[in-house]
## 1
Amino acid sequence: MAIVIATIVSKLRGKKFNLPPGPIPVPIFGNWLQVGDDLNHRNLIDYAKKFGEILLLRMGQRNLVVVSSPDLAKEVLHTQGVEFGSRTRNVVFDIFTGKGQDMVFTVYGEHWRKMRRIMTVPFFTNKVVQQNRHGWEAEAAAVVEDVKKIPEAATNGIVLRRRLQLMMYNNMYRIMFDRRFESEDDPLFLKLKALNAERSRLSQSFEYNYGDFIPVLRPFLRGYLKVCKDVKERRLQLFKDYFIDERKRLASTKAMKNDVKCAMDHIHEAEEKGEINEDNVLYIVENINVAAIETTLWSIEWAIAELVNHPEIQKKVRDELDTVLGPGVPITEPDINRLPYLQAVMKEALRLRMAIPLLVPHMNLHDAKLGSYDIPAESKILVNAWWLANNPAHWKKPEEFRPDRFLEEESKVEANGNDFRYLPFGVGRRSCPGIILALPIICITLGHLVQNFELLPPPGQSKIDTTEKPGQFSLQILKHSTIVLKPRSL
Ligand code: HEM
C-alpha cells in the first residue's frame, strides 16, 4: 500500500500539479474519513462555501472535483465540453453497463457518438413526440379513470406514485416496443419493476464505496459484486426474452411490415446493418429503463408534492387549464404552449427538486486545466447543478416554491440550458437528449391530474413530507406519500 501511495504522490508531485483547494488528505483514505460517503448536493455546498467554487476531494485513490459556479459549469459542459465529456464509472457501474457498452456511461469518443446517433431517430425527435403523444395522453387519462374507481382515493387517500409508475413504464415501453402493461399486478411488469429497483438500489448505495475508493479492499466487495452481476444478468435476459426478441419476431410478420415503427424496429435495423451489436441493443434498453422512467417519475412525484403543499399554486394551474382549454376538456400535448403557468410549475419543480442534482458525473480522460487549476486525468467532475439553481446569490428567495419567478424575473430561462444557472438536464454534448420527451410527459400528467382532482394531504395532515432520500447522484422523495384525490364536480 505504501508503494502505491508513494507512486501516486510522486506522480502528482512530479508533474507539479497546481491542484484545486480542498481539505488536507490523509494517506490511503484521502479525505474519505473526513467527508464520509454521502456527497450529496447539500453537503457539497458546505465544502464549496469553505474551499471555493472549484474544489478537490480525494476519495481514497479517486480524485473528485466539485464545480459550483455558472462560469465553471460553462467551462466543463460547453467551452471544454470535449475535454470533460467522458464519464467515470465505478466497480458497480462497470458491471451494469458492461464496462461502458451503453451510451450514458461510456467515455466520450467513437462508441458514444455512434450510440447517440443511433438512438436519436428512434427516441429523441419531434416526430417521436407526435407519434407517441396520443399514447401519453391516453395513459394519463387511464390514471384518472383508475383513481376514480378507488373510493378510498377521495377519503383516506392512496399512494398515487404506484399508479404513476405503471404509467411511466407504459409511456416508455410504448415508445420502445409498442407494448403496455394492463395493471400494476401484471406479472411481467412486477418482475421488470423489481429488477430495475434492485439495479437502482445496488448502484445508488454507499455500501460499496470503500472497495471503489481503495482498490486493495476490493476483494471484500466480492459478495456485493456477485449480487450485482446476478441482477444484471437476470435483467438483461428479461429484456431480451420478453421484449427484444419478441419484437423482432413480431416485426418480421407480414401483418406488421406496414405498421408505424417503434424504437426497437429502428434499433434492429442498425443492428442488421452491423452498426451496433446485440449487446449494444441490450444496453440501449438498459439505459432507457434507468435514465428515462425513474427520472421522469421522480420529477412528477416532486411536482405533485409541491402542488399538494401549495394549494394556492394548484388552484392557479387549474384555473389556467379551465380558462385556456375550457372546463372538462382534457389537456393534449399541443396545448402545453398555451399554458405558461403549468410550464412554470414544472420548471420550478425541476429547479427546487432537481432529479439529478449533480448531473451524471463527467470525467476528463487526459490531464486538463479548469479555472486556474490543473485537473489530473480521470478525475470525476461533479457539477453541482442544484446549487447553481438554488444559490441565493443568483436567485431571488430560491428556497421558496414560486413558479411565478419563471414568468417574472426569470422569464427568459428555459430548461434546455440557455442559462448556466439552470441545468436540470445538463447542457452541451452529454446533456439529456430525453428532455424532448420528459417535458411534455410531465405537463400532460400534471395537467390531467389537476383538471380532474383536487390533490390534498391525507386527513389530519396539513402537508406531505418532502424529506429527500440520499443517493449517489439522485434526488428522490424519501416517502412515497399518501395523497387524497377528490374528484372535481364540473
Ligand atoms: C425529468 C426527467 C429527466 C431528467 C431530470 C434528466 C436529467 C438528465 C441529466 C442531468 C443528464 C446528464 C447531463 C450531463 O451529465 O451533463 C441526463 C443524461 C441522459 N438522459 Fe436524461 N433526464 C430525464 C429524462 C430522460 C428521458 C425521458 C430519457 C430518454 C428517453 C433520458 C435519457 C438520457 C440519456 C440517454 C442521457 C445520457 C446522455 C449522454 O451521456 O450522452 N433522460 N439526463
## 2
Amino acid sequence: MVVDDEEKANILNTFFSTVFTVENEMLGEIPRNNENPILRVTNLTQEEVRNRLNKIKIDKSPGPDGIHPRVLRELTTMPTHRSIHWFRKGLRLHDNPALLAAMRDCDELHPIFILDPWFPKNMRVSVNRWRFLIESLRDLDENLKRINSRLFVVRGKPAEVFPQLFKKWKVTRLTFEVDTEPYSRQRDAEVEKLAAEHNVEVIQKVSNTLYDADRVIAENNGKPPLTYVRLQTVLSSIGAPKRPCPAPTDENMRDCRTPWKSSYEEIYGIPTLEELGQDPSKLGPHLYPGGESEALQRLDLHMRRTVWVCNFKKPDTEPNSLTPSTTVLSPYVKFGCLSARVFYWRLVEIYRGRKHSSPPVSLHGQLLWREFYYTAGAGIPNFDKMVGNSACVQVDWDENKEYLEAWRECQLMCPGCLVMTVSDLPQARTGFPFIDAIMTQLRTEGWIHHLARHAVACFLTRGDLWISWEEGQKVFEELLLDADWSLNAGNWLWLSASAFFHRFFRVYSPVAFGKKTDKNGDYIKKYLPILRKFPAEYIYEPWKSPRSVQERASCIIGKDYPKPIVEHETVSKRNIQRMKAAYARRSGKDGPQSPSKKKGVKRTASVAEFFKKK
Ligand SMILES: Cc1cc2nc3c(=O)[nH]c(=O)nc-3n(C[C@H](O)[C@H](O)[C@H](O)COP(=O)(O)OP(=O)(O)OC[C@H]3O[C@@H](n4cnc5c(N)ncnc54)[C@H](O)[C@@H]3O)c2cc1C
C-alpha cells in the first residue's frame, strides 16, 4: 500500500494523540488491533514498532502538535524492509552499491553468501583458490561485525535456498551485484522469478566492472567492441566510470539489525577446507591471503609507489622476476575484494598533474583490458568455446593427451602424488625449463605473470603443441587464484590467435623469451631445483649440454629431467602453416575444392591433406 507523506503524518498524529503520547515516553501500549494504522502503514509487527520506538531518545519537549518532531520524522521514514544482500563476487563492503541499497529503509538485514554446488560440479577449483575464498569470507564477516552485522554462509542451490529464506526471514527485498557470466545470468533470472513469486523486490547494481557491459554493447550498436581501440571510442562517448561509493558504517546500520544467534555459527558459519572436501596438505605457500582488508592494504602499498605507477608499462615488466613485477591485485579484483572502480580512481588521483603512461600499457590500460574481455564475454555467445563462437577462428587442434599432461603437470600421471605435499609434486615435464618453471609456479602459487601466461599459452596452442586453447583455459581455471571466466576465455582466445589478435606468425620461443629478462635462469632454478646446478649457458636448453656438464649438475637429461617433447623450430613453423590454413578457411580463400567445405569431411582430415599437398 502506498501512502504519501502527508497521509502518513496524519495517521501518526492520530495514533500519537490517542494512544501514544510523548509524556509517557513512548512506552504506552500499542493497540493489538490489526487496524492499527502504524502497523498497516509500515508493515511491521507490533514488537518491531515497539523496538524501533524504544531506540529513539526523547527529551520532554514535544513539537507544536504534541508529537516530538524527531519521532515523527523517524516514524514517517520508518524502515519497512527486510533485506537480503547476496554476496557472490563483490566480497567487500567498499564500493558496494547493492549492499547500501539493501540497508536503505531496512529493518532487518541478512548478508549472505551461497555455497552453490554448481561451481565445484562444473569447474575445477584448486585448494589454493578455495583457501583464498574462505579467507575472503572470513574477512567479510569480520568487516560486517564491525558495523553490527554478520555474514550468513548458506549451503545449497540458490533456486532452492531462496524460497526458504524468503519465508523464514520474511524478506521484502533482495539485492546483489550484476554478473554477466552465462551461468550467473541464468541463475539470477531464476532467482528474480522466485523473488517476484514471493513479493520480494530485487535490486541489482553494476559494480564488478568500471562500466555497465550491457550499456557499452548497446552504445556499440548492440555488439561488443572487438578491438581495444573501438572499446576506447565507445567508452569515451559514455564518459568516465562512475565514482565508487563509500563503505557502509554502523551509521548505515543504525535502524537496522542483523539477527544472529550463536547457534548460527554451525548452520551459517564460514566453511573449512575440510568441509569443502579439500586437503590442506596440498596447499601452496601462503603468498596472497584473501580478503578485502588485505586487498586495500596491497592497493595502498602499490599506490604509494607514485613513480612506478606513473611509469608502468606492461610490456616492460618481467615474466620471470623472483618477486612479481606487476601488482598481483588480480585475485582481489576477481573475487571483488577490491573494486575495479576504486583501483581506477586511485590511479586518476596519482596521475593528476604528473606525466604518466597511457592505455593499453598503463595500469589504467590493464583495467580497460578487463573491461574489454568482460564486455566481449557478456555479448558473444559461447565465448569460452571455439564452436559456436562467432569471434573465434575455427582451428583443427590436435587431441594429444600426452602433450597436454606434460604441459599441465598432470597429477594423474603420478598415482602417489595425491598423498604428497606440493613440493613433492612432479614437476612439469615438457622438457623446456622456462615453460615447466612457469607451470610449476602456477600450480604451487596460483599466480603467474601476464607474459608468463603468454609464453605457456602460446606453447600449448599455436606455438608448439597444437592443443586447443579450451584445454589450457580449463587448466588455468583450476589453478589460477584470479581465474575469471571472461578474462580467462578472452585472453586464451587472444593468445591462440583465435580472436582479437591475428598475428599468428609471431610465436614466442620457449628458450629465447625467458632469457631476455633472466639470463642466469634464476627463476628456473627457483621452481625447478633439479636444474639448479646447470650453468647459465645451458639452463634454458639443458639437453644441449655435454654429458660431463649434466653429471656435474647431478641431472641427466632424459633421466632426471625430460628431453624436450617437441622440436620448437620445426613444429612452430609447421603450426604457422596450419594457422594460415585455418585463417584461409575462415575467409573462404581455400577455394571450391577445400575439404573443409565439403560435407562430411572432418577438419582434422582437411589439415592432414593440406600438409600432404605441401
Ligand atoms: C592465457 C591467459 C589467461 C588469463 N586468465 C586470466 C584470468 O583468469 N583472470 C585474470 O584476472 N586475468 C587473466 N589473465 C590476464 C592477466 O594475465 C592477469 O590479469 C594479470 O597477469 C594479473 O596480474 P596483476 O594483477 O599483477 O596485473 P596488473 O598488470 O597489475 O594489472 C592490474 C589489473 O588489471 C587487470 N588486467 C591486467 N591484465 C589484464 C588482461 N590481459 N586482461 C584482463 N585484465 C587484465 C587485472 O584485474 C589486474 O589485476 C590471463 C592472461 C592470459 C595470457
